[in-house]
Amino acid sequence: MKTKHTVAPRTAITPRRLTISASGLLLALALGACSPGASVAPIGSAALPSIDASAAASAVSGAAMAALGQVDAAITTTQTDGTLTADEATSLTQLSAGVRTALTSGDTTAARTAIDNLSAKADSLASKLAAGAGPQLTAAIAALKAALPAS
């Protein structure tokens, strides 16, 4: 005995059916984009990664603060070993404190200016800084300058 199987009729994709499907899809996208809170990226655009500017500034400030700690240690050493007088060391320490204040407040322009002032004072003491712990101080100031990127 032959059993008859019913087969679902095949439906051909006609241009009319394709147009209706595409229209429905476009309508759904348009309605979704207009709904409140919807954020759909345009087709073909790439999402750019966000950069946390405060984290980047904090990293730069951290490196500069570490270098500033080396400068302070070198100032103390140059005073202790007699390379610099107490007055010269005090003026360098005050300039170093100005750099620290600017870095703590996040003002890189003021920090750069304060570092330039510190460097100029150290340059004026170059003949004294050639001996003893002087080269250590000169190197620490150069590292401080390098830790703060140019604008």
How is this structure best described in words?
This protein is mostly helical and 151 residues long. The protein is 68% helix and 0% strand. It is built from six helices and no strands. The chain has helices at residues 15-34, 53-80, 86-105, 108-124, 126-129, 134-147. The longest helix has 28 residues, at 53-80. It is rod-shaped and about 115 Å long.
Give a topology summary.
Elements: H1 15-34, H2 53-80, H3 86-105, H4 108-124, H5 126-129, H6 134-147
Helix pairs in contact: 2-3, 2-6, 3-4, 4-6
The share of residues in helices is 55-70%
Averaged pLDDT? 77
* Spatial extent as radius of gyration: 34 Å
Strand content: under 5%
Number of strands: 0
Distance between the termini: 92 Å
Ranges where pLDDT stays below 50 over 5 or more residues in a row are: none
What is the N-to-C order of secondary-structure elements (H for helix, E for strand)?
Answer: HHHHHH
User: What is the makeup of the main sheet?
Assistant: none
Q: What structural category do the secondary elements indicate?
A: mainly alpha
Specify the number of helices.
6
The oligomeric state is single chain
Which word captures the global form? rod-shaped
Short description, anyone?
With 151 residues, the chain is mainly α. The protein contains 6 helices and no strands.
Structure characteristics:
mainly alpha, rod-shaped, single chain, 68% helix, 151 residues
